[in-house]
Prior knowledge:
The protein is mainly α.
Amino acid sequence: MQExxxxxxxxxxxxxxxGRVGTNMGGQIAQLAIDxxxxxxx
Length: 42
């Protein structure tokens, strides 16, 4: 994921902080989805 964030910075599409925030947010959203799915399985 870090390579994608760096590529966007080098291409002047995003600032470095945007990559950090987006990566962190994506991880949190993925964890919420995993937790929700596990609750339905029980």
